[in-house]
Structure formats: structure tokens, C-alpha cells
């Protein structure tokens, strides 16, 4: 019952977000009587039964406190092991919550034996988890200050170690984390290469794991190339020979590697670059084919490494270079699979179950929800020609890339730079591990919105702005007064 109500409220909330985005985009065009963002927010709050995050209202749409416990065997005993957040790796961790917080606990089976999880003081119990990887969630309002117990109710399990303490009161709600931005600026890229003969060059990349801002009030532990998403935009010329060095920062917890789709050779580099924390590996490749290519980490689970942010683009310019444009932008689409539902505040954790089921909570341009909208929009001027290098890191979803209010004058379909471009295209599909190059001229000022036209994803953070400055162009776009 709770679950259904939250989901409904969440849906209303996120639809309101989408409407607000589109309404804002109208505002620059002076559209009268537009939908007021405040009104839609109010509607969403009413649907949620109060202000979001107010734990005394009894109707928050998301939990105030979330924990995940795994089942395991430690020192011959059966135990619960903390997964993620402040309890990561702790045996039978003490779970803390403020009084009256809405607490959500997920139990994940990690040892293959049958278990459950019971909070005695609240009579709250998960379903049985039967096989390795299965999970179940229970939630309750922590109304009673003080200590109580949690344990597994299967016969004998509590006695051999599966119990711990819930401490209510004395804890404060986690405040919105002040995590740094991991959004790569869409103009952070090298300019066109001079026409030149092939040469040898060296590229240095570093794998960096860091906590970054995923959305307003929410952070996530990203794995990146160079501390931002996507990784650095690499730009080489066909015929070049590249010596690529990959370092893995000493503070990393994971091995990382790189597979560049521009490389000819087994694994695209991945067989030569499995780098442990603190290490460095290098390999050399000949750049044979022009195009715009995705690169990504290729360390198992590859889908996990990609979804955590390890992808980027490498442009291989044809011999004669590319046609001149006024501005170039670098945009990539990805998915983030968090345990907590879209919109939850606090430090969000990865869900392998959602990844394997291809059920992301967030869709992102350049790593974060609305990262290219509110945070780092694309900017240009009327009369200019722009080019967007657009890639999909994914790992799973094909993008129907579209710019609301524009038509692509040229699409280099599937990022082929040696085929003639398509002309006058509204929406182009880009596969995971694929890319495109689009060009268009800007004829009217205002705010254009980059989207995947599978527009449900806009409700999950996938939108970017292209803000075009310049004088009004009434011959192109103008309101007609109605008498
Ligand atoms: Cu990796």
C-alpha cells in the first residue's frame, strides 16, 4: 500500500519537473499564460500529501533513512553485513535513525542460504530471500526512541549470530551532501587539429573514483576517467600512432581499464590495460579508421563500470579534417542504477539488481541529472553553426537524440565521417557504444532542449539546454496575435 502511494506521488512529482522544464523553456519566448513551475510543484506536493522530506507528515514519498544489509558467513557464524553508506562492510552494524524517520531496509542474499530480517519493535519483516542475489525490502516509521533488535527469524539463525541493534534517536537526518560536480563542461574539448602529416603522440588518462553530485541533494560514487563524466574528449588524426597510458589512482578500490572503439586489436586496449589501484599500463595503437568512437572501461562487470561513469569519445579526424563550424560541443548519455528511487536525497547507492534488469533510476547527459540544463548549459549565438558530438555510454539504452525546436541540417549517421551526411533530420538513433555527429545553424534565439525523445527519460533527469542569444528573428519564429 505504501509502495503504491509513494510511486504515484513520485510519478506526479517527476511529471511536474518535466512540465516545469518545458514551461521554463517557453518563458524565454515570452509565451503568455504559460504553465507556472510553482503551480506544478504545488500540485506535486499536494499529491505527495505534504512537503517532500517532512518526516512528521506521515506521507513522504521517499524514505528518510535507507540501509542495505547482506547475509554472509563470517568466522563460522551467520551474520548480516552492511552494504554501502556508513555501514559498508560492518558485521551486524548498528543501524541509526532519528525519531519518526521513515526507515527503509533492504536485505540482499549474499550466501545462498534462506534468510529474512525482522525488526521486533516495529513488527516489520522482509520476505524470505532464498537464493544468492535475491532481495527484499521492509520499511517502518521509527517512532520509538531507544534501542531495539533486528534479527533473522529462521530457526537457529539468530542464535548463531544474525542479530544487531537499531538505535532510534540521537541520530540526525543525513544532510544534503555537498558533493563536487562531475559534469564535464560540453565545451571542454580540444579544437580542430591543423592539417598535418600523421604523427606519434602520447595520451595520458587516469581512472578516478569519487563521490559526486548526481542530482540536487543527492550524491553518488562515480568511477571516471579524469574525475568527470564523460572522460576527456580525445582528438587524433587518421594515420597517427598513439601511445596511451592509463593510470589508476592509488585511492581506487577497483581495477580499471580502457577499450577504445577506435583501436584495431583484441579488446581495443582492454587486454593490455587492466590496471590495479596505484598502477599504470600503456599500449600503442595505429589509428586506421576516421570517425567518432566511444571508449569505456572494460573491467568486469563492464556494465557496472560504464554505468558508474567510465566512458568518453575519441574523434579520429579524416586526413583533410572536418568542415569548419562556429562551435563544437561534447555530450554523452548514460544511465545510473541507484538502489534508492529517483529523487531520493542523500548518498545514493548502486543496485546491481536494477542494472541487470536494465531499470535505471536516472538518465543523464554528462553524468548528472539536468547536468547540462541547470548546471552547464550549451551556449551559442544566432547565426552560428554548431556541431554536437553525441555518444551513448549507456550501458544499455539506445538514445533517440533530438533537440526540441531545431532540425539537424546534417547528421553523420552512426558517426561515419566518410559517408555523406543525412540532411534535414529531426531525431537520430544512437546505440549504446555508438555515436553521432550533428550540425545545425541557429536561426532564432531562445532556449532549446536536448533530449532523448523517449521522453519518459526526461522525467528521470535527461535534459540539456542550448541557450541561443541574439536578436529576435520574427521572420523565422514569432507569436501571431489573435483578434
Ligand atoms: Cu573501471
Walk me through this protein's architecture.
The protein has 483 residues and is mostly beta strands. Among the domains are: 2-48; 65-168, Immunoglobulin-like; 328-334 and 360-469, Immunoglobulin-like (Sandwich). Helix content is 11%, strand content 37%. The protein contains five helices and 29 strands. It has helices at 2-27, 37-48, 302-307, 352-356, 371-375, and strands at residues 65-74, 77-82, 95-97, 102-108, 118-119, 124-125, 135-141, 146-151, 163-168, 200-215, 218-225, 234-237, 241-248, 259-260, 280-286, 291-296, 311-317, 327-336, 346-348, 362-365, 378-381, 385-394, 399-404, 408-412, 422-425, 427-430, 434-441, 446-452, 464-469. α1 packs antiparallel against α2 (37-48). Residues 1-19 and 22-61 have low confidence and may be disordered. The structure holds copper (II) ion. The site of copper (II) ion (CU) has 8 residues, from loops.
